[in-house]
Design brief:
Layout (H helix, E strand, L loop, with lengths): L2 E4 L5 H5 L7 H12 L1 H6 L4 E6 L5 E13 L2 H7 L10 E12 L8 H17 L6 E7 L3 H5 L4 E5 L3 E7 L1 H4 L11 H17 L4 H8 L3 H8 L6 H11 L5
Parallel strand pairs: 4-5
Antiparallel strand pairs: 1-2, 2-3, 3-4, 5-7, 6-7
Helix pairs in contact: 8-11, 9-10, 9-11
């Protein structure tokens, strides 16, 4: 069980001592916490919670703010989200602006705990003000973390993977990620992907780098191994192929 408090100047020394790995993605997260989070919190632009262990050591944090996300009808259909599609293109959301776990406290369930807290807050907000999603701009290094926790890929850029978590899934645990797409259609898309890769003289390593996936996943696609729809969508996005 972790304790939390809102970010404040009282915790400046703990924040300065917060450690992340020495990678561009993680340095960015640490820089936000140390240089931006407090000011945004004081201005009520993005609220930041700090989480402490039983010894009052700062082990993690996250920042949230309101969002409005454009969701295509095809994505709604793909994931069976119970949303009105006629006349609506944008839906209310809570944005997970940043989430970080101190490098010294990883593999102890802290990230999972923080994510449950984020879900709980978003669900509570949805009881008073319309809210359909939690959104996040996932860094390449955190793509798997969010996928494993039910976030679905919306689109990708060179820097981020834009992902969504439907709050509907909290009320309907049986809501699966299995899309309403036939196996034949999936095979057609996979064949098109492999054709584009071949015609463009791309290596699997290049495709993996732009899609945020492991190279072995791209190799498995060639040899007919079953591929999940989210993976296929990621590759299509990176190659500029229309998914549906």
């Amino acid at each position: 069980m972790l304790n939390w408090d809102d970010i404040s100047r009282e915790y400046q020394s703990e924040i300065e001592n917060f450690q992340m790995l020495n990678t561009p993605d993680e340095r960015n997260v640490r820089a936000f916490l140390q240089n931006c989070a407090l000011e945004l919190h004081e201005r009520q632009t993005a609220v930041t919670r700090l989480y402490f262990d039983q010894e009052d050591k700062l082990v993690g944090f996250f920042s949230l703010h309101n969002d409005l996300v454009k969701v295509s009808p095809s994505l709604i259909l793909e994931h069976r989200w119970n949303l009105i599609t006629e006349g609506l293109t944008h839906f209310p959301a809570i944005k997970l602006h940043y989430l970080g776990v101190d490098a010294r406290y990883r593999k102890q369930g802290v990230g999972k705990y923080l994510m449950e807290e984020v879900r709980s807050i978003a669900k509570e907000i949805s009881n008073y003000s319309g809210c359909n999603f939690i959104t996040v701009e996932a860094l390449h290094s955190s793509l798997t973390f969010y996928r494993d926790r039910g976030f679905k890929l919306k689109d990708s850029t060179a820097e981020f993977h834009n992902m969504l978590f439907s709050l509907e899934a909290l009320d309907n645990p049986t809501l699966e990620a299995t899309p309403l797409i036939s196996k034949q259609k999936i095979q057609e898309i996979r064949d098109k992907v492999m054709s584009v890769i071949e015609q463009s003289n791309l290596t699997y390593a290049q495709v993996a780098a732009t899609s945020g996936l492991d190279e072995i996943v791209i190799e498995q696609m060639e040899f007919g191994t079953d591929v999940d729809v989210e993976t296929l969508a990621s590759v299509c996005q990176s190659l500029g192929i229309r998914f549906l």
